[in-house]
Amino acid sequence: MDEASNVRPFEPKEYKAVLAAIPKTGLHARNQDRVKACMQLQRWSGLSIVDAVCLSKDELLQKGKVFRVRTKRRKTGAPINNVIPSWLGTELLRVKNGNPTFFFISGEATTKGAVSTIDKMYRQVFQKAGIDGTSHMFRHTFSVELLKAGVDIRKVSRALGHSSVVITERYYAKWNKAQQDILDGDLARAWKA
After folding, report:
1. pLDDT under 50 in the chain at which residues?
2. Partner of 133 for a Cys bridge, out of 13, 14, 126, 153, CB 3.0 to 4.6 A?
């Protein structure tokens, strides 16, 4: 099985079902807010769960109503500098965590422990939603929706913090239809010349 066959984004109905399942988990209200904000951060910024959980408050920049996530991938060190929806920036600022530095790390556990805790909450949400989901599906959803909207794969690669566009192509080529259509048109025009 190739790597691309492991890529499964959330369908829009699934994403809505996941968010709707959060209040049904029995998690404390504070944790419900944290898990919802973290899931949405992954979906709308393309961050991996590690990068989302480890996002510090000084890595969320605000200029007027525009919010930007400026960080580095923990895995590769590649920079990420993505605009996020303003409603999400506002929601992140409202997350109650008790830690003055981070949105999701409470300071009571190691980074690895904090990621594990959030991941356990994710699994509770997926179970309540009746969806066989993983945290990485939010990152896949971010990528696939951009490609379906016609965003150039090189820009998607940069937004994901991939070290090379080849990595992005390996995983997401089948959703890159807009670029294939452009190439097909360019080739057809060149043959007429």
Report:
1. 1
2. 126
- Taking only the tens place, the pLDDT of each residue in 115-150 is 999 999 999 999 999 999 999 999 999 999 999 998
The partner residues of 56 in beta bridges, in order of sequence, read 102
Among residues 123, 127, 133, 115, the alpha carbon closest in space to that of 9 is found at: 133
Using the Cα atoms of residue 13, residue 155, residue 169 and residue 174 in order, give the sign of their dihedral: positive
Residue-wise DSSP of 12-62: HHHHHHHHHHGGGS---HHHHHHHHHHHHHHHHH---HHHHHT-BGGGEEE
Written as six digits, the tokens of 177 are: 């239809």
Tokens 């994403």, located at residue: 15
Single-letter amino acid code for the residue at 16: K
Backbone phi, psi, residue 25, to 5°: -80, -20
Query: What DSSP character marks residue 173?
Result: G
How far, CA to CA in Å, does 120 sit from each of 10, 16, 47, 139? 19, 19, 18, 18
8-149 belongs to which CATH class? mainly alpha
For residue 46, give the nearest of 82, 72, 4 by alpha carbon. Answer: 82
Q: What is d(CA 109, CA 94) in angstroms, rounded to the nearest whole number? A: 22
